[in-house]
Design brief:
- The protein has a 5-stranded mixed sheet with strand order 4-3-2-1-7, with helices on one face.
- The chain folds into 2 domains: about 110 residues, Rossmann fold; about 80 residues, Dna Ligase, domain 1, CATH 3.30.1490.
- A hairpin with a 4-residue loop joins strand 2 and strand 3.
- It starts with a strand and ends in a 28-residue tail after the last strand.
- It is elongated.
- The protein is an alpha+beta fold.
- It has 6 helices and 11 strands.
Length: about 220
């Protein structure tokens, strides 16, 4: 049996694009050439292309996620999702790969879409009884009621883009008079914003993975995450 073909998805449409390119290139250098045939899938708003080890470029067919080398169709056995932000973290890439039944390393499209949207994720968390910071939400063009924000959230608070995968656009506001500048920064990333009260305490991150599918993370393992 020949080597498996792995596509490393990188780039994307957000402010995190350069970080994602660095991540993807690191994965590409780290994966063993003895076990895998690796290609980089560089994603931008204009096109999706495939790069080989010599940086030769090939257009990616979005219909079946294949590309041609010397008139030979190359299929991907697995996709390593190294995209930060859109379309890797919000579930768009996962949805396409699920449709084509191509295994990938990220969670399923529903989970990605839910957790990428802070408002929706908080709504679900609250229904499950999970404590969360006090918050208010609004969209670009809405009237901003600072008195309401002060009453419901208070200062200091954080102004955040609702749909963003990193800290880009997030501003801590200590004083009411600093709120307008924070809005300008956050709106650069998204038209939807959320304002949350500042929580003081120790930050804890918890990683979760499936023991049963650790060597075969695919888009069909929704119940394992």
């Amino acid at each position: 049996m020949g080597k498996k073909v792995v596509g490393i998805a990188m780039g994307g449409y957000s402010s995190e694009r350069e970080i994602s390119l660095n991540s993807g290139n690191t994965v590409n250098k780290t994966l063993s050439n003895e076990s895998w045939v690796c290609y980089r899938i560089v994603i931008s708003s204009d096109n999706w292309i495939v790069l080989d080890s010599q940086n030769n470029s090939y257009p990616l067919s979005m219909g079946d996620f294949t590309f041609l080398i010397d008139n030979k169709i190359i299929f991907f056995d697995k996709i390593f999702n190294a995209i930060h932000g859109i379309p890797g973290e919000n579930g768009q890439l996962a949805a396409l790969l699920e449709l084509l039944n191509i295994p990938h390393t990220s969670c399923d499209s529903y989970t990605a879409g839910l957790t990428f949207n802070k408002r929706d994720c908080l709504d679900v968390a609250k229904k499950w009884g999970i404590p969360a910071a006090k918050s208010v939400s609004f969209d670009k063009g809405d009237i901003i009621d600072l008195d309401l924000i002060k009453r419901q959230v208070g200062f200091p608070c954080f102004v955040k883009p609702n749909r963003s995968g990193s800290s880009f656009g997030i501003v801590k506001v200590n004083r009411r008079e600093d709120f307008e500048n924070a809005l300008d920064t956050a709106f650069l990333e998204d038209r939807q914003l959320i304002v949350e009260s500042a929580l003081v305490g120790r930050e804890v991150s918890v990683g979760v993975f499936s023991m049963g599918e650790r060597n075969n993370c695919s888009s069909n393992n929704r119940n394992n995450y």
